[in-house]
Design brief:
Layout lengths: L1 H6 L11 H25 L2 H25 L4 H18 L4 H15 L8 H15 L3 H16 L10 H20 L11 H15 L19 H29 L1 H14 L10
Length: 282
């Protein structure tokens, strides 16, 4: 891993040999197939159904990864989130993959689940480019601003990030803003939400406020250190606060595109409060 970690400090490895990873890869494929069947029935063309199916599979994967950052000690939160995201996709429509990636990276940086700080390449190249691409939608732009906040906030948490994280935060916010201006995303206007996305958003936000905290026992990927309680708490508040701000600014479109975030928050609370039986590999 030394070559990878010298390039980036925010990448985590998917190992198909692990039962938990096998489960979520299987759910991602299954979710894609379910959406393909639904889209094929609606459109009558397998070619037109491939795009939505791929979007569903990647959305499930990103929701699983996000759940692992929000609840690192309980893999079965990600099990529930992965399954619920398939249902949310059928109710709310396609996910905004770039915006979901921004939230995933923001939580990963704040939690520091890899055990590593973002590298110079991460902060000055990879993340600004990703933020620029995400900025082509209002939801992606807002999510990228949350990522910029995460980079700046990382400078104030235990074992603070290096000084260039503040410069990286500036580059990310500037790149995202350039993306949203150049793409003309603001021209689409604010739309009222449909019933299903609004319900999923409300459920996620309410669940987020009732998500109990704990002292994590999990260890970082590359340095084998215990995760920090304050970092986990900050991770959850960054996700919840960022989600609320993004759907308020982005309106109905953002609620539909980011329903996976609400599902992750709801799944974490349901498992933590023992309101639903945990299942699948732990």
């Amino acid at each position: 891993m030394s070559r990878l970690t010298s390039i980036t400090g925010i990448a985590r490895i998917v190992d198909p040999r692990l039962p938990t990873h096998q489960f979520h890869l299987a759910v991602a494929v299954l979710g894609g197939l379910v959406v393909m069947a639904v889209e094929l029935e609606k459109r009558g063309s397998i070619t037109e159904a491939l795009g939505p199916a791929a979007n569903a599979g990647v959305t499930v994967f990103l929701a699983w990864a996000l759940a692992r950052e929000v609840d690192p000690d309980e893999a079965r939160t990600a099990n529930l989130a992965a399954l619920l995201v398939v249902a949310a996709r059928l109710l709310a429509g396609p996910g905004n993959l770039a915006a979901l990636l921004m939230f995933l990276l923001a939580t990963r940086i704040v939690l520091r689940s890899t055990g590593l700080q973002p590298t110079l390449l991460d902060g000055l190249v990879f993340l600004p480019v990703a933020a620029f691409l995400a900025g082509r939608t209002v939801a992606g732009w807002m999510a990228a601003l949350i990522l910029a906040y995460a980079l700046a906030h990382d400078h104030r948490l235990p074992d603070p990030a290096r000084g260039y994280s503040l410069i990286a935060a500036f580059f990310v916010s500037a790149s995202a803003s350039a993306g949203v201006v150049l793409s003309g995303a603001f021209g689409s206007g604010w739309m009222a939400p449909a019933a299903a996305p609004l319900a999923l958003t409300a459920a996620g936000v309410i669940a987020g406020f009732f998500l109990p905290g704990y002292i994590p026992m999990s260890r970082t990927d590359y340095t084998d250190q215990m995760l920090e309680f304050f970092r986990l708490r900050s991770t959850r508040w960054v996700l919840l606060g960022g989600y609320i701000l993004t759907v308020v600014v982005g309106g109905g479109a953002a609620m539909a595109e980011l329903s996976a975030v609400g599902v992750v928050l709801a799944a974490a609370t349901l498992i933590a409060r023992k309101l639903i039986p945990a299942f699948g590999p732990g």
